[in-house]
Amino acid sequence: MALEVGDHVGCAKEKKNVNQSYSKEEEIVLMCLEGPTRAPLVSLDDNLVSYVGLTTLNIALLGGKSAFYSCNMDAQVKEEVIKISKYKEESLPFTYLGVKIDSKKLSKDDCSFLIDKIAARIKSWGVIEGVISACRNFLWGGKVASHKTPLVAWDLICRKKREGGLGLKESHAWNLALLGKYVWSIASKADNLWVKWINHIYLKDKDWKSYSPTSAASWYWKQLCQVKDRFRSGYNGNKWVFQHKGYTTSSGYKWLRGEGQEVDWAGWVWNNLNIPKHSFLCWLVMWRRVQTKDRLKKMQIQTDELCPLKMLEDQIGINVSIADLTQLSTWLQKPCNGRFRRRVIQCTYAALIYNIWKQRNAAVWRKCIASHQSTVERVTKEIYWRIVSVMPKKKVASGLENDAIKVTKTKGG
Predict the structure, then answer these.
(1) Which residue in 333, 347, 338 sits closest to 386, CA to CA?
(2) Residue 220 φ/ψ, nearest 5 degrees
(3) 106-129 pLDDT, tens per residue?
(4) Which residues touch 120 (CB under 8 Å, ≥6 apart)?
(5) Residue extents of the structural domains in the chain
(6) Torsion angle, CA of 326/328/333/337, rounded to 10 degrees?
(7) Pairwise CA distance, residues 189 & 191, whole Å
């Protein structure tokens, strides 16, 4: 936008730019006048009206909530501007968005408030923590915002499935692994403009492994140097030792997380013939995290420890008393007549555990108990159609449905 300033004495008529900085709460209009100190400002009123029309400002608010600041300005011209604009006059310096506005050059200390404010806001955002919180809440409550208490620690959830976790990525370690790519680029002296710039500005041919940033270095560079120190033991000189082909994000993540102890029940819990919700419940069962009454009593949430499944045993004909889950897990992984048959047996037991849990909840909350026959039929259909969907070629194979029925009947007595 331009303001028509008028005819200056001894100067040609010209337009001067108005530099504008916007925020939701306030705006700055900077008017720069050149030439003699005395100049008619007849057109200033019209230009202010035009400016209001082009912005979201209300002309009625201009005089009441706006201020006028001047520097080396002729007194008569200043009075004319105040009269036309109806602004109140104030003196420099003042603050805008936390930064001091003055006629003098701003020093580093003058901008420190803004730097601290931005840094505090970034920390308060907690991007990674926000992502973890959203994922955790969705896992246990089905919503991004949930107040349900997690049944399993997040660090364990982010372990591999064979180590007892769910195989999710741990965001902090994954973020560090991604930043590790920059560390590797510098260490391997990658032929790109960024590495050349880093060497010219910061490293200056110094040894990268032993390098320490100066106090005057940028915040981002200091953070990258901290990531470098985190990966220090993974390097032999400037070579990544965890993978002979060089650093990758995947190898960096595995190095950061390390290798955990494997569990012996992961094979049948995560059998691909299992229905996913069956696998998830069996995973909770193997970690003893299902909210049974005996656990609730230990947490002093209730006093009754009698599990309603005990009352169901006689009526649905299924013996749900599993004294040793480790023994069950070992039995399910024993070899039998064919690998496929063993997987069918495993998914049948997973379906039984899930349906027994459903019966328990039905007994507690709805006071109803399904019959033995309906439970067997439901488990049989679930297994059959799961196998058909995962392995369509097995649909014509004889004995699938009969195998499931035999397993459920054996379990049911």
Answers:
(1) 347
(2) -65, -40
(3) 777 777 777 777 776 665 567 788
(4) none
(5) 2-91, 130-257, 266-412
(6) 160
(7) 6
